[in-house]
UniProtKB/TrEMBL annotation:
This is Phosphocholine cytidylyltransferase family protein. Residues 3-167 form the Nucleotidyl transferase domain. Transmembrane segments: none annotated. It comes from the Bacteria. The lineage of its organism: Bacteria, Bacillati, Actinomycetota, Actinomycetes, Kitasatosporales. Coiled coil: none annotated. GO terms for molecular function: nucleotidyltransferase activity. It comes from Streptomyces sedi. Keywords: Nucleotidyltransferase, Transferase. Gene3D superfamilies: Spore Coat Polysaccharide Biosynthesis Protein SpsA, Chain A.
Length: 250
C-alpha cells in the first residue's frame, strides 16, 4: 500500500498564492524563522506516520513547483515520490485526474485530496477498517453539521454507500466524505473503468461521481467514520484560515 495525492488543481479561489503555486503548496504553517509547511507536507507526514514509504502525486497546474521540491520532500518525510502528470488539469475535473493514476491505484493506495488538512488518525482509521472483503473505504465525518457545498454520503450498514454527491439535502446524508479513501488493488480495474465512463460522460465531473458509477454497477463501497476530528477542505481564503488553525494542533 502506498500514498496517493491529487495535487493537479489550480485553486483559483486562493489567488494570489495560486498564481504561482498549485493549491497543495499553499503555505498552511508559517513558523517564524522556520520553513513553511503546506497541505502536501502535512499529507506526506501523515503517510509516513502510518508507515507508508512510497507515494505518488498527480500533478498538473504549476507542476514544476512540486518537481522542484520533490527531493526535499523525500528527504524530509522519508517517502519515495513518483509524479504522475495530468495533461488536462486546467481543463477537466478530478475524475480524469484520478484516472491518470490508475496504474498507481493497482498497487493499493490511501488516496488524499491535495487540499484536505486532516490528522494521521484518519489514515489509521482507514487501515484499521481493512479486511473482510472491503475494497474501497471512504473516510466519513458523521459528526459535522452539513450544508449545501459538502460532498455528502448516504450509506447503509449492510449495503454500503448508496449515494455520494453534493446535490443532496443535508438532512438525508449519513455524513460527509472528507477526501481520503483506502483503495485495495482488487478494486483498481473496476474503479478505472468507472472513472473513464464518468469523465467521458462529462469531463467536469468529480471522481466521487466515479464512485457513484461503481455503486450503480453494484460495487460495494464501505465507509469508516473518523469520529470527532478537526479537518477542513481548503477551497478559499476562509478555509485557509481555518486550515491554519487546525494544522497547529497536530
Amino acid at each position: 500500500m502506498i500514498g496517493l495525492v491529487l495535487a493537479a488543481g489550480a485553486g483559483r479561489r486562493l489567488r494570489p498564492y495560486t498564481d504561482t503555486l498549485p493549491k497543495a503548496l499553499v503555505p498552511v504553517i508559517e513558523p517564524e524563522g522556520g520553513e513553511a509547511r503546506t497541505v502536501l507536507d502535512l499529507t506526506l507526514a501523515n503517510f509516513a506516520e502510518v508507515g507508508l514509504s512510497e507515494a505518488a502525486i498527480v500533478v498538473g497546474y504549476r507542476k514544476e513547483a512540486i518537481e522542484e521540491r520533490r527531493a526535499d520532500l523525500e528527504r524530509r518525510y522519508g517517502v519515495k515520490l513518483t509524479l504522475v502528470e495530468n495533461d488536462k488539469a486546467e481543463e477537466w475535473n478530478n475524475a480524469y485526474s484520478l484516472w491518470c493514476a490508475r496504474e498507481v491505484i493497482a498497487e493499493g493506495v490511501i488516496l488524499a485530496n491535495g487540499d484536505t488538512v486532516h490528522p494521521p488518525s484518519v489514515e489509521r482509521t482507514l487501515l484499521a477498517a481493512r479486511g473482510e472483503g472491503r475494497r474501497i473505504i471512504l473516510a466519513l465525518d458523521t459528526v459535522k453539521n452539513l450544508a449545501d457545498e459538502e460532498m455528502k454520503v448516504v450509506a447503509d450498514p449492510e449495503k454500503g454507500v448508496r449515494r455520494i454527491t453534493k446535490l443532496m439535502d443535508p438532512s438525508e446524508a449519513t455524513g460527509e466524505y472528507i477526501g481520503v479513501t483506502l483503495i485495495e488493488p482488487e478494486a483498481a480495474a473496476e474503479l478505472a473503468d468507472a472513472l473513464r465512463t464518468t469523465y467521458e460522460r462529462d469531463p467536469q465531473l468529480y471522481y466521487e461521481d466515479g464512485y457513484q458509477e461503481l455503486v450503480h454497477r453494484g460495487f460495494h463501497i464501505d465507509t469508516a467514520p473518523i469520529g470527532e476530528v478537526s479537518w477542513v477542505e481548503i477551497d478559499n481564503h476562509d478555509d485557509l484560515a481555518r486550515g491554519r488553525e487546525i494544522a497547529c494542533q497536530y
